[in-house]
């Protein structure tokens, strides 16, 4: 596989890039800071300069890929404006680039709560509204999409065991390792196409959980 990951220096993204490279696949990470190139190279991935909030040509960055993964995010310190330009706008730019270049497969790291942004208070409101709107755009894109809505991300070691459910409204932690492993598996399991699911630490092996969706 040839996979382009937006937010290529992100914590989940780099875990996914390592899995892809170790599996003999091509991983291209979109980054915006030159000093991050060596971190991706060390994983066996390629770094491609592409700021999803700037005027960079996203289409040329994704051309030829088998799949794109949106794993970028403005981050917890950012304000409501960057939730719109990054978490929503960046996801839409990646959709447009995929469609323009004939890349059919699109995975997005969304979030629990994105199904009901009105239920959030404080800074979570604009964040979940942006995630919700990005997910709707992905669902309506015509692409072969998978929307992964993880619970609270942790840096605990992955277990390979998860709960994946299309019922919305759950809560709980999930290691970034297992989110990356789930994305890696979903890229290879067509049953995940057209699915939106929440993801938590659980008891079921990842592949089994995805095939049961
Ligand atoms: N924290 C949680 O509990 C939680 C729960 C559910 C879902 N999520 C979602 O999961 C996502 C991935 O998590 P993570 O921990 O891997 O995130 P992360 O480490 O913060 O990575 C986000 C990446 O997005 C990049 N980015 C920001 N603005 C960009 C732009 N304009 N163009 C291109 N790339 C840009 C950042 O690059 P720079 O280094 O250049 O800033 C960074 O590499 C989060 O963004 C969040 O939406 C989080």
CATH topology assignment: Rossmann fold
The number of helical segments is 7
Tell me, what is the CATH class? Alpha Beta
Radius of gyration: 16 Å
Element string (H = helix, E = strand): EHEHEHEHEHEEEEHEEH
Percentage beta strand: 15-25%
The separation of the N and C termini measures: 23 Å
What are the segments in which pLDDT stays under 50 over at least 5 consecutive residues?
Answer: none
Ligands bound, unique: NADP nicotinamide-adenine-dinucleotide phosphate
How many beta-strand segments?
Answer: 11
| Biggest sheet details | 9 strands, mixed
- Look at the structure and name the CATH superfamily: NAD(P)-binding Rossmann-like Domain
**Domain tally:** 1
Major sheet: arrangement of strands:
3-2-1-4-5-6-10-8-11
Output mean pLDDT: 97
Shape: globular
The CATH level-2 architecture is identified as 3-Layer(aba) Sandwich
Provide key terms for this protein.
single chain; 213 residues; alpha/beta; Rossmann fold; 9-stranded mixed sheet; two-stranded parallel ribbon; 7 helices; binds NADP nicotinamide-adenine-dinucleotide phosphate
